[in-house]
Amino acid sequence: MQDIVKKGIVAQSENGEVRIMVLRDSACGTCSTCGGCETKPTFIKLKNYGDLKPGDEVYLRTKGSEVLKISSIVYALPVVLMIIGAVIANVLFKNTSYDLNLMTLLFILIFLLVSIFIIKMIDKKYKSNRNIEVTKA
Asked: Which of 8, 23, 55, 78 is the most exposed place for a label (fewest CB within 10 A)?
């Protein structure tokens, strides 16, 4: 899979870190009022491994496979865990006096919360270990 490359401008450089404004290509380009909405830049903080100074134009490069992997986890994990929760509730409470629909909903919500907790843990890992390569333009 190809690398993802974005252009950015160093906004700040202090305490061994840089704050980079990532430039967007466009907002969406699909509606009839194209160009009518405002696209706001995104800022990211990274360690300053080079001699980057405010105003420097940079290229941010990351592996497309890494982005795909993280996206798959973020989008698929909650769905998979909610399905597992529904199946477990239906197996455990099928022949009991408990309301099966209510127990299924409860298990789905519990498993959704578990997936959110797991995603937050993964997010903390990736915040401290960014796989973004910064080079001067």
From this structure: 55
> Under DSSP, is residue 61 helix (H, G, I), strand (E, B) or coil?
strand
Reading phi first (left if > 0) and then psi (alpha if -120 to 50, else beta), residue 72 is in alpha
Structure tokens at 99: 């309301």
User: CA dist 122 to 22, 112, 118, Å?
Assistant: 23, 15, 6
Does residue 129 sit in helix, strand or coil? coil
Pairwise CA distance, residues 137 & 120, whole Å: 33
Decide: residue 134, CB within 10 A, 0-12 exposed, 13-18 middle, 19+ buried: buried
Token look-up 């797991």 returns 118
User: Which three-class secondary structure state does DSSP give residue 132?
Assistant: coil
Confirm if 63 and 25 have CB atoms less than 8 A apart: no
pLDDT of residue 135: 80
Bridge partners (DSSP) listed for residue 60: 6, 134
Three-class SS of residue 104?
helix
